[in-house]
Amino acid sequence: MASRTPQDTSRQARIAEMRRAEKTRDRRNKILAITVSTAVVAGLVGFGAWVLIDQKQQEKDAEAARKAPVSGEQDWDVKKLGRNHVDTPVKYEMNPPVGGDHHPRWMNCNGDVYKNPVPEVNAVHSLEHGAVWVTYNEKAAKGDLDKLAETVGKTPYSLMSPVKEQTGAIMLSAWGKQLTVDSATDPRVAQFFTKYVQGSQTPEPGAACTNGLADK
């Protein structure tokens, strides 16, 4: 058998060293890959948990806003107002009305902004369906009316129209509820919408706000 030369021994040593180095790199790469994967998974889990917590908090905040009383609002016992469908004129005890007997056909309230007064008996039917009715007189500033019209226009189950004889410049009505404000920027406006658009006061939640009377 031929004996190994120093060159052969050195070559074998280099090969062995290269293999050891390759194995070390493989182990290091595997450890790095596992570490990165673990960090990514942990990050995704953490982000998912944060999103869930944030969503739950938003739901709690929205629920709290719905339950919180609106400062300065008036409240009527709607059981005494009646809910009959009638074809005859109705005399309401408040202006604008917030409930009572009303016409069988509702006023369209899918974010409808009316330039002219609308029949009260039809608007009251809209309130029964869970709409918020925004009304105003000549005391309201144009800027406020533009802002309110924008809010109503993007809010299903709401409508807006002028009521010349009302006492307040701007009034918001829901079934059995009413609020008077001087400005569209009053934070109670948003609170009233949040609480009463399809709110718990609604006698017929989910009933239509389209295919009714549309007199623009």
Please write out the topology.
Layout: H1 6-67, E1 74-75, E2 110-113, H2 120-128, E3 132-136, H3 142-153, E4 158-162, E5 170-174, E6 177-181, H4 187-196
Helix pairs in contact: 1-4
From the spread of the alpha carbons, the general shape counts as rod-shaped
Largest sheet: 6 strands, mixed
Query: Might you state the CATH topology name of the largest domain?
Result: Glutaredoxin
Instruction: Give the number of domains.
Output: 2
Structural class: alpha/beta
Order of helices and strands: HEEHEHEEEH
How many DSSP E strands? 6
Keywords: Membrane, Transmembrane, Transmembrane helix
Protein name: DUF3105 domain-containing protein
Transmembrane segments: 31-53
Would you give an account of this structure?
With 216 residues, this protein is α/β, with parallel strands linked by helices. The chain folds into 2 domains: 1-67; 74-196, Glutaredoxin (3-Layer(aba) Sandwich). Helix content is 43%, strand content 12%. It has 4 helices and 6 strands. Strand 5 (170-174) and strand 6 form a beta hairpin. The relative contact order is 0.15. The mean pLDDT is 89. The chain crosses the membrane at residues 31-53. This is DUF3105 domain-containing protein. Keywords: Membrane, Transmembrane, Transmembrane helix. It comes from Streptomyces goshikiensis.
Write a brief caption for the model.
With 216 residues, this protein is of the alpha/beta class. It has helices at 6-67, 120-128, 142-153, 187-196, and strands spanning 74-75, 110-113, 132-136, 158-162, 170-174, 177-181.
